[in-house]
Amino acid sequence: MKCLFLLNCRPMMLITILFCLPSRKHSGEDLLHFDINETWRAMEECYKLGLAKSIGVSNYSCAKLSKLLENPTIPPAVNQVEINVAWQQQKIASVLLRE
């Protein structure tokens, strides 16, 4: 965040937190543990400072999105997920449409 400010960069259009899906070799646990709320607070600070025009997430499951939505000051503008004819992800789609 400081780097963007010190370099006097123009605001980014969208900054997202990417959640990588584990390969089939791994269990359902996160490969990298991090505090979603602390990371999101830093993203909100970028938004408030004008370093990002919007903030969001990518590949968040219903559970991860629900956890994130417990305490945000600024809700995510987007949850970028892959949806196609073969992989419709109706559960996450219905949650996103509700929010």
Question: What are the main properties of this structure?
Answer:
99 residues, alpha/beta, 3-stranded parallel beta sheet
Describe the structure.
This protein has 99 residues and is of the alpha/beta class. It contains 4 helices and 3 strands. It has helices at residues 2-6, 36-48, 62-68, 90-98; strands at 15-18, 55-58, 79-80. The model has no long low-confidence stretch (mean pLDDT 76).
SSE string, helix = H, strand = E? HEHEHEH
The largest beta-sheet arranges its strands as 1-2-3
Q: Proportion of β residues?
A: 5-15%
Termini separation (Å)?
Answer: 28 Å
Oligomeric nature of the chains: single chain
Number of strands: 3
Q: Count of helices?
A: 4
Morphology = globular
Tell me the major beta sheet.
Answer: 3 strands, parallel
Mean pLDDT: 76
Unreliable stretches (pLDDT < 50, length at least 5) are none
Structural class: alpha/beta
Summarize the structure.
This protein is of the alpha/beta class. 34% of the residues lie in helices and 10% in strands.
Per-chain topology:
Layout: H1 2-6, E1 15-18, H2 36-48, E2 55-58, H3 62-68, E3 79-80, H4 90-98
